[in-house]
Amino acid sequence: MDNLYQNRIHPPDKKIFLPSIGTWSQSWYLLDGRSQDAISLAVASGRPLLVRGLPGTGKSDLARAAAEYLERAFVYEVITARTEPQDLLWRFDAIARLADAQVKNTGVEVAKNAANPANPLHYVSPGPLWWALDWRAAELHLEKDCKTPVQRPDQSIKIHQNQEISQQDRAQKNGTVLLLDEIDKADSELPNSLLEVLANTGFRKPWSEAEIKADEGIYRPLVIITTNEDRELPPAFVRRCLVLSIVPDTDFALWIKQRARVHFRDPDKDTSMDDKRPVLSENVLNQAAEKLIKDRKASTDDGPKPGLAEYLDLLRGLQQLAKDDETEQLRWLKRVYQFAYQKQSTPN
């Protein structure tokens, strides 16, 4: 009854094409109705969306799907144990400044437009929150003030081989989606430090009176934060977020096959000549899912069990090993599935 009620109140699932951007290759994502509603509320309320779920359930790609769903620019930062709160706002290249100061003290002549150690703004580069809040201000800072190499968001999204979309155009028209991936890897100081910035949607530019602040309305960024639950997040931080848990609301085998089908065309049903997705039969999807479910039930380790990510890895491999040959794909499946699924235990 609960699943039927959920299916009735949420919108239909959407198959979202994810264009390549930076090191992210093109892919597909099944944006279910619950996720669509969570995204809509996060945009309307201005609250960050905290996405919970086991590793490999598509939390990071949800942010990419949200960017395409809303036609926004996509900015991302993978959080590590070494990520400092300031890194999300701006970065300061102290080493470059010291080196330039030492060169200047030697009396060596430098280029007229070179960085000046007396001006700290020459060594400041925008962080991901700066880009997400005000893309134009970040570009102006690089043009006028920053004199050192910087790490910046990808400037374009590659839709097709010869077609690209400007990220800046998207940001200025519809705003941005900022992914802060795996925030549980950082110390609790980092999520706590975000509270004021996210509440005010802005911060002060260093060594300046200027404010880096999002415009009202559609330009307010959608911040999506993922966690694998490796470390408990501060309660004050969680309270200021909306929370979406990615968990199967139906039979697990059916859940993973539904998501696999957006990546692979069914040769018996998807017959459009415009559909360029690789082909995998329903039989291959079923047998690969059966082996995954069997391995999940047999696993006695405390680590993560094989899930959607492992399932998709295996299917991609089968499609490459024996393109358009179901019989050969099934032979390969028997030979190689354990390499994708059985990762927790070392065989005797």
From TrEMBL:
Signal peptide: none annotated. Residues 45-252 form the AAA+ ATPase domain. InterPro entries: AAA+_ATPase, ATPase_dyneun-rel_AAA, P-loop_NTPase. This is AAA ATPase domain-containing protein. It comes from Nitrosomonas aestuarii.
